[in-house]
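Write out this protein's structure.
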Amino acid sequence: MTRHRPAVVALDVNETLLDLAPLRAGLVELGRPPELLDTLFARTLLTGFAAATAGTWCRFRDAFDAALAQLTDLAAADRARLADTFLELGPHPDVEPALRRLVEAGVRVVTLSHGSPGVAEAGLGRGGIAPLVERSLSSEVIRAWKPAREVYLWAAGVCGVEPGRMALVAAHGWDVHGAVRAGLTGVWFSRAERTYPAVYDPAALVAADLGGAVDAVLALPAP
């Protein structure tokens, strides 16, 4: 299948665009090891995915709180304070130049997360790059979690394009897999993961970093 340059590029938020370092620092302030964040983030996703697969739904913040309660003995107030730290995240250093190149090439840029509304906006604003993003989409609006097909189709619909005219760029293989299954151009790059999982449908594009992912998108032929 020949892929063409997308009209819209949707980017995942947590880890893909925003650095989770403030969450690690928050754990340390609460007397917990910084390496707990990796397990905590994975358990949060597990909680949300399991609820969705079973036919129920929960907010990302509630899944995070549940995971934190399972892994620590922190009081509810401390867990809430740590959850608030998502609003203190900022973009990785490579994000601003990558988004700017997309916009200057005439590609529309949006964010697509199942995270809490406001997190992407706060992080992009902190990095001074909010003007580069057309809109930030949270699938809490439709009570769904990525990688459900409906999330990507909803995002394409909101942006007024066919799924084949939208790309999803993410540092998480499971997210790219969901986008590919929904008919989007799935673009994976290495940040938190070393390789793209072989058990998933192949990504349309694979890159070593975000800059390389943008290069690959912009190298696609015009429609």
